[in-house]
Design a protein that fits this description.
This protein is α+β, with helices and mostly antiparallel strands and about 325 residues long. About 40% of the residues lie in helices and about 20% in strands. The protein has helices at about 5-15, 20-30, 30-40, 50-60, 70-75, 85-90, 100-105, 115-120, 155-175, 195-210, 245-255, 265-270, and strands spanning about 135-145, 180-185, 190-195, 225-235, 240, 260-265, 280-285, 295-300, 315-320. Strand 2 (about 180-185) and strand 3 form a beta hairpin.
Length: about 325
């Protein structure tokens, strides 16, 4: 993570797009020499975080970058805070394609070295400062964890090694689709999204990558399970609180490796905007552990996803084999 790496990536994107550094400077409204000094760290100029974001936006405007993943990776290279939801909703970032890891990683090769990825895996909790907060926000939560399975004992050494690459995919899928991780453990990720459709896109990107790369363990399934729920949550002292978090966590604990589950609240928000060939299976109404009110649960199915799972780890109240 350095100015040099960031500058080299900017130059490579410009070259691939047939643009010069002078064109970038004109797009930013800067003199070419000023931009050159900022990118090279020479003179008395300092490249600030707002300027870094403007450079990434200019690259998007020039079509030198085409995906949200590329924009996110550029910010991470220089340890710049992520774009806000408002930034993603405005041009030119709005025109960037959502990260589709199903296509981006056909060979299963992570974008960074395993040592760097492992460092990111065990990073401390992060606040979700770029989302807009009020006393009672409507937020879509995506929780993902590595299901250990019924066998006791430590995870196999090969699985531990693979966790580094898994964590990178989850982070990139979340951030590349407009979400932000607000809490992170070695085998658990907790993220918030402004919309349910964005959360679903992240879940699809991650699970499809895991499946395509053959990242399975002894059960024969992708080890990660994902739960999505939308609700009104409180936010204070850089942390979310309220029933929506509990419901998302309980939904996650009912699922199985490789599964993507949604509550009715999230399913209703995405049902009219589902990607092509993706559908929702109505699994019925269940009483989740530690929750008084039962709820309807849906499973995401489609190409690149596993479909057959054991029954949910929760009492079924009303079965309903419907889908939309």
């Amino acid at each position: 993570m350095s100015l040099f790496t960031f500058s080299e990536k900017v130059k490579s994107y410009l070259k691939a797009a047939g643009c010069s550094q002078k064109v970038l400077a004109n797009t930013l409204g800067l003199q070419h020499t000023v931009l050159s000094h900022k990118l090279n760290g020479t003179g008395r100029t300092i490249l600030t975080h707002p300027e870094i974001k403007e450079i990434v936006k200019a690259l998007a405007k020039l079509e030198a970058i085409s995906t949200r993943l590329e924009a996110c990776e550029l910010l991470r290279e220089i340890e710049c805070p992520p774009f806000s939801h408002q930034d993603w909703g405005n041009s030119p970032l709005r025109e960037l394609e959502a990260a589709d890891f199903y296509a981006l990683y056909p060979t299963g090769t992570p974008a960074k070295s395993s040592s760097v990825l492992h460092t990111a895996m065990i990073a401390p909790f992060e606040s979700n400062s770029s989302l807009q907060h009020s006393e009672n926000d409507t937020v879509t939560f995506l929780f993902a964890d590595f299901e250990r399975g019924p066998a006791p004992g430590a995870l196999p050494a090969a699985v531990k090694k693979a966790l580094a690459g898994h964590g990178a995919v989850l982070r990139q899928a979340i951030e590349g689709n407009g979400g932000q991780i607000f809490k992170q453990l070695e085998i658990s990720y907790y993220a918030a999204f402004p919309t349910a459709t964005a959360a679903l896109a992240a879940a699809l990107a991650a699970q499809r990558t895991f499946e395509r790369n053959g990242w399975r363990w002894e059960t024969g399934k992708v080890p990660w399970r994902i739960a999505i729920h939308t609700g009104n949550a409180g936010y204070s002292d850089d942390a979310y609180f309220g029933l929506p978090l509990s419901r998302t966590a309980c939904l996650l604990s009912a699922g199985h490796s490789g599964q993507i589950l949604l509550t009715l609240a999230s399913a209703e928000l995405v049902r009219d905007q589902l990607p092509e060939e993706i559908s929702l299976w109505d699994l019925g109404e269940y009483r989740l552990k530690d929750l008084d009110r039962p709820g309807r649960i849906f499973q995401v199915v489609g190409p690149g996803l596993l479909a057959e799972f054991l029954p949910l780890a929760a009492p079924e109240i009303h079965p309903a084999p419907l889908s939309f």
